[in-house]
Amino acid sequence: MSTLNLTLMTDLYEMTMMQGYFKTQNHEVVVFDAFYRNNPCDGGYAICAGLDQVIEYIKDLHFDENDLAYLKSLNIFDDDFLEYLANFHFSGDIYAIPEGTVIFPREPIIKVVAPIMEAQLVETAILNILNHQCLIATKSARVCYAAKGDGVMEFGLRRAQGPDAGTYGARAAVIGGCTGTSNVLAGQLFDVPVKGTHAHSWIMSFPDEYTAFKKYAELYPSACILLVDTYDTLKSGMPNAIRVFKEMREAGIPLTFYGIRMDSGDLAYLSKKVRKMLDEAGFPDAVISASNDLDEYLIESLKLQGAVITSWGVGTNLITAKDNPAFGGVYKLAAIRDENGTFIPKIKLSENTEKVTNPGNKTIYRIYDKNTGKIRADLICLVGEVFDPEEDMTIFDPNEPWKKTRLAGGSYTLRELLVPVFKDGKCIYESPSVMEIQEICNKEKDTIWDETKRFVNPHEIHVDLSKKLYDLKNDLLNELHNLQED
Amino acid sequence: MSTLNLTLMTDLYEMTMMQGYFKTQNHEVVVFDAFYRNNPCDGGYAICAGLDQVIEYIKDLHFDENDLAYLKSLNIFDDDFLEYLANFHFSGDIYAIPEGTVIFPREPIIKVVAPIMEAQLVETAILNILNHQCLIATKSARVCYAAKGDGVMEFGLRRAQGPDAGTYGARAAVIGGCTGTSNVLAGQLFDVPVKGTHAHSWIMSFPDEYTAFKKYAELYPSACILLVDTYDTLKSGMPNAIRVFKEMREAGIPLTFYGIRMDSGDLAYLSKKVRKMLDEAGFPDAVISASNDLDEYLIESLKLQGAVITSWGVGTNLITAKDNPAFGGVYKLAAIRDENGTFIPKIKLSENTEKVTNPGNKTIYRIYDKNTGKIRADLICLVGEVFDPEEDMTIFDPNEPWKKTRLAGGSYTLRELLVPVFKDGKCIYESPSVMEIQEICNKEKDTIWDETKRFVNPHEIHVDLSKKLYDLKNDLLNELHNLQED
Fold it and tell me: Does the record carry Phosphoprotein as a key word (chains A, B) (predicted)?
């Protein structure tokens, strides 16, 4: 199976800058951090996803003859630079937070340590992939949280923003917790469950609804979910569905996985009526599934209203993350390695304090409460810093320096979040399967309290700086401020 | 250049229904309409886009060995059906509204006339492609309308919902009016202009801002747009940029295309200050370009505030259509052809009047005012109906029957919107180039008044039904209603 090579899927300015570095003979090794600033939907967390596609992209990076001819045709790039590109491959290191991990704002999800030309080229594609998949995985986790253990199916392919959005979006949705997808291609590519029964058009293509149901039940007796709202859910769809279920039972066909789906109307009211009809007809184990513009808020509300829906099909609002369709991840220069191999930290100023970057070659430790296993805080620090969890630790809010937290020695455990993925251009990481990542993600979601998972005003888990990083950042800020005063 | 085959990019239920039709030996030819119900962003129109990708998809439809093996592994599909799929190709007819055309709710953008199995399979991919590209083309047209003739660049690749969303989204944005994109791959694939200069990281990788500007100007003197907000726009960026421009002038380097870009801060205030600084330094023709979370509303507001920005870079909000990220197109059964070749109309009921479909094998005429060339209304009618523009015409609102419009003979002209694209499975349509489609779209936008293009409460252009279609729909509704009463 071959896909389009994405080497040219980059912003033109990455390439004009690359040529600039080439012409100025700048081969410095730099550190870039990819991170995001705000949790989607004003939530308390996000879910990391997309790394496997980033790995494929990096592995496949090369400029073929067509690419070079196209670049030449732009009359921007000189032959010596194009020759360099002809032999281009990624030679740097990449560190990343594994897919399925719960993540928080301002911590590097991916860290690229590479010669500046290479690190610059890959910015756009890395952000594109991460921004999309982190977004949908996060939305999916929210929707599944609202469904409180009911199955949630990803049904949004037709409303996704193009084929990749539908297909990689389905992948991300499964990572976030969806039990499956309607997208057959996603099923094939990622070995995830695919589900689906029939549409209104199936019903309309038969002379009447009963015949349509009857035929469907004959064809698919072991996965017989009938869509009951083509004409009238309670007056037509339900009586016809129950008639078919009864005939199946009378014919001795085992009713293993069967039930109805509703795609319109007042789902709270209808589901209660439908449950009653099914129970009274002797079908208490019939599935009631629902779709129709669902999202986490609507599912939560339906649950509060006592809707007896056991399976949810979520389309548009999940696959586009409709109320928050962009993740907003950025990729910022954090350090430049000098001739002695020392990383010289770099900082990007902004009038908005939150937008000031964290300088230096960094890593992240997750601090867990030893008793509960829940996340206490995340700690961004400089590579090489050593912490002993048997000793007390003080961590600092990066924006509000008076906010310090003291952790008692012995009460916490530490886990480094960034793992090596590429070393000297070679991939040294093997991605788990998507279903394995879903399992990882389920465990990850257990490391945060409901207070952080709720939709309104969730509790914020702190991402703090080590003392060393905090001081370094402060020194750089003062230095730059003094420069501007001069 | 090879792309992933999208044959399996369909909802599983399309395939279970297909097998159902196969098993029940249903080879009836049916009519499906793809249409949408509401203009994005509460606007007055939408722009049609995506047809070329639909054509590629239909041409490429086939199940290869891997696909068949995967489908078999699902234990849903029988060997006889899989054998049928092995020889599957599309054999039907497709009609479509050409890309770049202004479109309105409820009119078929694509009409598929094909054996039911084929027509059903293609639903999901057609909707996916149309929903995405119509959405972004429409958003782009809105943004360009706000920019009142200034150049608008599509800069959103990194925030798009995956690679296709960035790349086909760039295509759609150019169709809607953008002068170019930052996405190099989109430039290569669709032969559209690509643009871009440098990022903050370029500035940060040099010892100081002046040196970074100076180097950039040496490398790219003929397209020298300097990013001035890395440290401080007015105190640092502008003085350094002007110093470089002066040095270029002194060195006799022609200043053809040059200027500055701002990516943060108060763009209205800063642009006026920046314009003054440039003018006073003798650079009245320097470009002032701006980016930073722009959309049509913000551009309109900046213009009202007297911002003197001449070029706009629009990212996230355009490439995701952030305030309305789903187009909502649907695909509904409209007719089934009987053994005599007559199309038997089908209607889908809904408690929501607006969701009741228009039955029958239909086409659309656009009615133009003869004097102004502007659109008077669109008319959906049955195929075969003939209208003489020299005669008076009465058209009917599909939802509110008392709303009739009478057009005087001789005052209007007619144009059929749907054109044949596939005939008996063969493509008989050649897509214009993307830049040609942009030109078509520019002319199309001239056929609607500002009243329809404005953002708040735009004037609605009516999509009405012919007398014959109106009566047919009414008869079917009464018939179904009587059935339910029985």
Answer: yes
